[in-house]
Design goal:
This protein is an alpha+beta fold and 179 residues long. The chain is 20% helix and 33% strand.
Length: 179
């Protein structure tokens, strides 16, 4: 358990939470098609996303504050282009990402982390933010080949709960300003 908040205790009811960019149906279908070139334990298409901030296990009463942070987040209309495969060797993760992530995405993630820290939460980070969509876990090798870029228009930012059975539940989402 990540004791991410002063109120988190082993005996308290907790929820495993993270913020993500959630694809629309067209982007999700195109991302799922990229899994054809990947070997490993494939991620179910319904769970494909870009993680903005992993929070881990937090007390259930933290959710309203986390939703307030999401609601106040200045979400620009992001136009993403998923155009390359990648691989994290240590956790054996095959992923798809962006050769050049838009500056607005990097700024959005940094602003979210700042707001979380100001509210007393910390996001688990593994170095600098590398926006990606995990396609498979337990991948023995990096995916190879090229593919036509996957356009991802108007990505929604969401707060997600990861349930013990592996299902993801979107608790609330934020659409880009002006949509």
């Amino acid at each position: 358990m990540i004791a991410n908040h002063p109120q988190a205790t082993p005996n308290a009811a907790t929820r495993k939470l993270f913020y993500a960019l959630w694809p629309d149906d067209a982007a999700r279908a195109a991302l799922a098609a990229l899994q054809a070139g990947v070997r490993g334990r494939l991620i179910p298409p319904a769970r494909l996303h870009v993680t903005l901030a992993f929070l881990g296990h937090l007390p259930a009463d933290a959710v309203p504050r986390l939703l307030d942070i999401l609601a106040a987040l200045p979400l620009p209309a992001l136009e993403l282009s998923i155009d390359c495969y990648g691989y994290f060797a240590r956790p054996r993760i095959a992923w798809a990402g962006m050769t050049q992530p838009p500056a607005a995405l990097i700024e959005l993630q940094a602003e979210l982390v700042r707001r979380l820290e100001a509210a007393g939460f910390s996001a688990a980070t593994h170095g600098s933010f590398k926006p990606h969509v995990t396609l498979a876990r337990e991948a023995k090798e990096a995916p190879t080949g090229t593919f036509a870029p996957v356009p991802w228009h108007g990505a929604r930012a969401v707060l997600v709960e990861s349930l013990p059975g592996g299902e993801y539940v979107v608790l609330e989402g934020l659409s880009p300003r002006g949509d």
